[in-house]
Amino acid sequence: STLFSNKKKKGRRYVRLSCCCGYPISIFFIVVNEFCERFSYYGMRAVLVLYFRYFLLWDDDLATSIYHAFVALCYLTPILGAIIADSWLGKFKTIIYLSIVYAIGQVTMAISTIHDITDANRDGTPDNFTFHIALSMLGLILIALGTGGIKPCVAAFGGDQFQEHQSRQLNTFFSVFYLCINAGSLLSTLITPVLRAQECGIHTQQQCYPLAFGVPAVLMVISLVVFIAGSGMYVKTDPEGNIMWSVCKCIGFAIKNRFRHRSSSYPKREHWMDWANEKYDKLLIAQIKMVLKVLFLYIPLPMFWTLFDQKGSRWTLQATTMSGDFVSILISTVNPILILTLVPIMDRLIFPLIQKCGLNFSPLKRMTVGMLFAAMAFVSAALVQIEIDKTLPNFPSSSESQLKVVNTYSTTLNVTISPNEHLLIDADYVTFDHQDITVSLNTNPVITKAFSLIKGGRQTLIIPSDPTVMFVNGYTADLNITNLDSIEPSATTNYTLVNQGKRDFVLRHGEQWCEFSRKFGFGASYTFLIPSTVFSDDCESITEVEDMKPNSVHMALQIPQYFLITTGEVMFSVTGLQFSYSQAPKNMKSVLQAGWLCTNAVGNIIVLIVAELGKLPKQWAEYLLFASLLVAVSIIFSIMAYFYTYIDPAEIEAQVRKEQGLEPEEMEKETIEMEEKDEDQKNEQGVKQTKI
After folding, report:
1. C-alpha Rg value of the chain to the nearest Å
2. Strands 401-407 and 458-463, bridge-based pairing
3. Which residues 6+ apart lie within 8 Å of 424 measured at CB?
4. Are 203 and 57 in contact (CB under 8 A)?
5. Residue 200: C-alpha distances to residues 113, 133, 214 (Å)
6. Are 150 and 100 in contact (CB under 8 A)?
7. N or C: which end of the chain has fewer CB within 10 A?
């Protein structure tokens, strides 16, 4: 390729390059940058709620709230990024600076997941959770600033690399750009859960969150390096002012002027924006009116995103209470796979068939149907949750206690607990509404002992082979990896988190040792009782107690809800953007993009509020609540859509120009193009242009 011009013109700094495929070389750096950045973002987000739940040990509601607060911030910061790029730094510098912030945030997040940093006693659990929480929150804030700030800049910056005669290549670029977004999402949501399932650590082996978050951090650094590497080849535009700021000032003036003239003595105007006529151009006011019509339709839309973004929070937590090996990996990738499949099917098959049948399936009707599909997805999720609840253990309330008795004595025993309540040996947990109990065993002589149960907890009473009793806390203990060869006599260990499947254990005491293996089910909890004869019978006498049964509802049952929510996304999101862009002037598309992103942010804030304030006792009830709200909102939206009149922005602009005595936009554009062409010929005289 050959460089043949490098100059500034009308706010643009040109560095024109051509290559063998007819595309500027610079766009290849941008495409690779986008793939790596999307891999970094979606990979981190795929395991984020699990990190909150199982590393920081937050409950489901807090984990959900923080997750959606982060997502909401990611959809609010693009407005800030657009203003910085258009009014101050320009797209190139904005992408560079905010990508650095982004990379620092990812690295900070990865460091916060290293449990060994504060694990002084080397028991596998951080000793200072405040440190890890503070570091992870700092990382998430930096990530939100970075990913949101560059979101409105990268695609537009890629479009700046093309000349006006390269419209075909420009369309192909945006298709490839969208493909890279989905490819990055697909691969990252497939890979990072697998990385998390590995075991790693300096002193103790735990689920490998540092690797799951570290790989996205590395990809973000690569993304930044790749983008900087193409610096000398980019077409870089200077900041030319942000249209959003102009729109806000015009609207503000109209409201203020209307308030000043609120008296009935002043004549009414056709539209409240007409009160800005004294200061602002009529064309700008007409354009803002068109935008406001679309933004008014956006008011009900956040409820769709309220349901949609719970794929990464509530539905992920739901999957942790289900069974499935390979399917668990597939579930995390269902959405991007279905997106890549359903978009062309809808565009090329479903929508044309509906049109051929003579049905008026307008964009707003498609969006309404998309909402109903999302509501059906949550009804499906509620039905799955009801099935899950049937298999979950019945945990005690905060005022209750639960006890289970395990007998390892050589003969059958009867256990009586005051007041004269008989317990079945080796049965399930029994619930008590009082703390203090007295346990009696029908041994010879009778053994009686008083105990105080822990409220809100599960405990196991183990009757060993010698006449003593020992308590093991089976519910409230921390989940820790414990070295079996360091257990003291008559001592117990905390629960250790292990992967499902077959696991081997080795017990050692001096020169004596034995090995045994067990197969663990997903979601189950076990206690192993080690007798004094363990080495003489080669570990055969070890008794296994199943405290909680394995999950039995299969993850494949989630596939229908993912299919329904993705169908809703295709009909709602893709159609919504197309409709918005068709109903707004060219120079106002960034305003609509900002409004669209705000609906997503508000939707996530709604989830946060419901999770923290709703506190519904059953998760399936919350799913049905969201589904009902979306059905109600879709009815309101359909009524608003019924009264909406479709417009042609170009025609309205031409009419306003004609009323103002201005030349039509096409003539103005042609005049500017002729002037630029003459300038090009003058500046490029004598320069040989080579095309390869």
Report:
1. 32
2. parallel
3. 405
4. no
5. 11, 20, 13
6. no
7. C
Other Cβ atoms closer than 10 A to 276: 24
Q: What is the pLDDT of residue 672?
A: 41
Q: Which are the contacts of 497, defined by CB distance < 8 A and separation ≥ 6?
A: 54, 206, 207, 479, 481
> CA quadruple 575, 576, 577, 580: dihedral positive or negative?
positive
φ and ψ at residue 396, rounded to 5 degrees: -70, 150
DSSP codes of every residue in 277-298: TTTS-HHHHHHHHHHHHHHHHT
The answer to whether 304 and 575 are in contact (CB under 8 A) is no
pLDDT in tens, 233-246: 999 988 877 788 88
Q: What is the per-residue DSSP string for 446-491?
A: PEEEEEEPPTT-EEEEEE-SSS--EEEE-SSS-B----GGGPPTT-
At 218, give phi and psi (nearest 5°).
Answer: -65, -40
Task: Provide the terminal-to-terminal Cα distance of the chain, rounded to the nearest Å.
Answer: 6
Angle in degrees, CA 134, 73, 630, rounded to 5: 125
pLDDT of 327: 55
CB atoms within 10 A of CB 165: 8
* Predicted confidence (pLDDT) at residue 425 exceeds the cutoff of 90: no
- Binned at pLDDT 50, 70 and 90, residue 64 comes out as very high
Here the tokens at position 517 are 């293996």
450-506 pLDDT, tens digit each: 888 888 888 877 776 543 333 343 323 332 223 344 566 656 766 777 777 788 888
Question: What backbone phi and psi angles, to 5 degrees, belong to 408?
Answer: -115, 10
Q: In the chain, how long is the greatest CA-to-CA distance?
A: 114
Token pair for residue 358? Answer: 């003579």
For all residues of the chain together, what is the average pLDDT?
A: 82
Q: Which two tokens stand for residue 107?
A: 């690295």
Angle at 377 between CA 374 and CA 379, to 5 degrees: 115
Would you list the DSSP string of 162-220? S-TT-HHHHHHHHHHHHHHHHHHHHHHHHHHHHHHHSEE-SSS-EE-HHHHHHHHHHHH
For residue range 565-580, what is the model confidence (pLDDT) as tens digits? Answer: 999 998 998 888 778 8
Phi, psi dihedrals of residue 6, rounded to the nearest 5°: -150, 100
Amino acid at 637: F
Amino acid making up residue 685? Q
Cα distance between residue 155 and residue 172, in whole Å = 13
